Amino acid sequence: MKAAYRTSYGNQEVLQIKELPVPGPSENDVIIKVTATTVNRTDCANLTGKPLIMQLIMGLVTPKYPVPGTDFTGEIVEVGEKVKKFKPGDRVWGFDDSGKAASQAEYMIFNENRGIELMPDSINPIEGVACIEGVHYAYNFINKVSLKPSQKAMVNGGTGAIGSALIQMLKYHGLSVTATCRGEHADIVKELGADRIIDYTSADFTKENEIYDYVFDAVGKSSYGKCKRLLSARGIYISSELGPNYENPFLAMIAPVSSGRKVKFPIPLNINESLKFSAELISAGAFKPLIDRMYSLEEVKEAYAYVLSGQKTGNVILKVQNPET
């Protein structure tokens, strides 16, 4: 089988397409013929080993997992002898951000007890893969708070995979949403449901006078210190990143014993729950993934180069095989 492959940390140039044997399943594993995956922020962090904390997970000197990839849609072609949830022919989708998924390949192996679910028949596998990573992280923002229709939220980074999903989730729950983006992407963010848009190239949202119940930084480029003045008396700040000097987990740890404004840290658990929530949103007509570009597996270097440039809007798809094959 063909697979993206690397043996060191670095940019897209460390990647190559390599022929590897198709993996065989252990007793609780399934073998998946991959239809599509994405190249996302997590993939880029795993590829580059940056921030350095990633190397504690992926390997201090060289990456433990040479085939990259975190999310996938595909079809099960073989199951281990103790597999109970799935059978050959099942259409599935899933996610694992630990680096073990190895989904940027024609075939992959996955434990049935990890983050994998049957994909609803109504979901196209190309669009479906764009409903996984961003939705998962966005879901782990909103499940840390109690959303109410009367509330107001700020989303910093409205065109990213997380931000574009978050806007739609917040509107699904009836909140008023302000979002930041580049001016030329304002129509895209408005179509996602944002009530108000701030062009971050010409205005600093942290200096405005609006008050919000939530500030969600979906790109991790702000800080609690800068955003605190925007929060209501019991407002909550959540960022997708660790924050300056890795402060966000610490601030979240003291939140339960502090009063007033708080920081919460979105530890991204519950992959199966986020997949089910994604299906719920799509079925309700409340979510449509934002897709920027599509590349073939052979174009994996170009895909990573584009994502690493920081210019993507929504999701970048890596199409591995045609859905009908």
TrEMBL record:
Residues 10-318 form the Enoyl reductase (ER) domain. SMART domains: PKS_ER. Pfam families: ADH_N (PF08240), ADH_zinc_N_2 (PF13602). Transmembrane segments: none annotated. One of its GO terms (molecular function) is oxidoreductase activity. This is NAD(P)-dependent alcohol dehydrogenase.
